[in-house]
Amino acid sequence: MNPILEGSLDTIVVIGILIGILGNFIPFFPAVTITWLAILGYGLIHGFNWGSGVIFTVITILLIAGNLIDNLMMGAGARQKGTSWIAIAVSFLTMVVVSFIASPLVGLLASLVALFIVEAIRIRDLKKAFNSMGGMSVGCMTAMVVRFFICLVMAWLWLIWALFAVD
Q1: Whole-prediction pTM value?
Q2: What are phi and psi of 141, to 5 degrees?
Q3: pLDDT for 106-133, tens place per residue?
Q4: What is the DSSP secondary-structure string of 72-94?
Q5: In 3D, which of 131, 154, 126 has the Cα closest to residue 59?
Q6: Which of 25, 45, 118, 150 supports an S-S bond with 87, CB 3.0-4.6 Å?
Q7: Best CA proximity match to 52, nearest among 152, 151, 159
Q8: How would you classify residue 77: left for phi > 0, otherwise alpha for psi between -120 and 50, otherwise beta?
């Protein structure tokens, strides 16, 4: 491959990894998936061997874990406050729909409002409904931090691969 083209593609990979890491601070942004896609691009550019295959497998496991943890922590934060699964499902669905219509931040805010409304109707206690909303917020923030560190580990593994040309 042309060294100039290869260097340009590597720059795009690094930018993709950085977007993934920084994207953790944007609600509903698939940061872990973006980081993984950038690293996959690196593998497709440079090829895979046994060592890089092992590293990429670990990175893929981190992708799966990161995406599962993200959804579980958000719901777990709300469940700790006694929130119903129906309210969590309505909240998640609201986040997805509104994020596509407006923006991820508006989607997150709308999901919290939806959770509050469903819980307020269900339990007829505004304070408990507000606590459920707070639990979901804490779960979202915790998931954001965990995703951030997962992306950092993915980036470090890629850096080992890139710098030491693991064989």
Answers
A1: 0.77
A2: -65, -40
A3: 888 898 899 899 989 988 888 888 888 8
A4: HHHHHHHHTTT--HHHHHHHHHH
A5: 154
A6: 118
A7: 159
A8: alpha
